[in-house]
Amino acid sequence: MKAWAISDFHVARTDLLHGRKLTVPRADICICAGDISNDIERSIDFLHAEIATHMPVVAVLSNHDYYGSSIDQALVYARKWTAGTNVHILEDQTVQVADLRLVALTNGRTSRASITISAIWQWMSGASSPQRSASGTCWTSG
């Protein structure tokens, strides 16, 4: 399984209007550690439009994703618009994607790195060295 770990895209309104070239690698899953944009609607739209068409997405939200709403309102919105899709927004939850179980411990909503660390440790013993690029980091397990 190949995982693409990303964070801190900070997608702006103009990126959605005029396009922003995102190179999506060949991977089996995208693990997103938040700060997708400064608005929950934009964050969810970006995940659906740019990444979920290529692979399942498992994400936690971070401080920028909550701007303009409360944390609880943002989570309600995110869950509503990701229900039944291959975008999974986690908040102290787990999800199984293929043979990989991902655990998101958001540490009182202050830590967004835990999802990436938890997922990577699941198969680190058989994983390749990370392949880094401008669009994120990929690990492969076999």
Count of discrete domains = 1
What is the β-strand count?
8
Q: Report, as a whole number of angstroms, the end-to-end distance.
A: 6 Å
Task: Quickly give the structural class.
Answer: alpha/beta
Q: What's the helical proportion of residues?
A: 25-40%
Q: Work out the helix count.
A: 4
Radius of gyration over all CA atoms, rounded: 14 Å
Runs in which pLDDT lies below 50 for 5 or more consecutive residues are: 110-125
Which percent band covers the strand fraction? 15-25%
Task: Name the average pLDDT.
Answer: 75
Order of helices and strands: EHEHEHEEEHEE
Strand order of the largest sheet: 4-3-2-1-8-7
- Overall form: globular
The main pleated sheet reads as: 6 strands, mixed
Describe the overall structure.
There is one protein chain. This protein is α/β, with parallel strands linked by helices and 142 residues long. It has one domain. It contains four helices and eight strands; from the N terminus they run βαβαβαβββαββ. It has helices at residues 13-18, 40-51, 71-82, 114-123, and strands at residues 2-6, 29-32, 57-59, 87-89, 93-97, 100-104, 131-133, 136-140. The strands form two sheets. It has a six-stranded mixed beta sheet with strand order 4-3-2-1-8-7, with helices on both faces. Helix 2 (40-51) links the parallel strand 2 (29-32) and strand 3. The longest helix has 12 residues, at 40-51.
Q: What order do the helices and strands come in, and which of them pair?
A:
Elements: E1 2-6, H1 13-18, E2 29-32, H2 40-51, E3 57-59, H3 71-82, E4 87-89, E5 93-97, E6 100-104, H4 114-123, E7 131-133, E8 136-140
Parallel strand pairs: 1-2, 2-3, 3-4
Antiparallel strand pairs: 1-8, 5-6, 7-8
Helix pairs in contact: 2-3
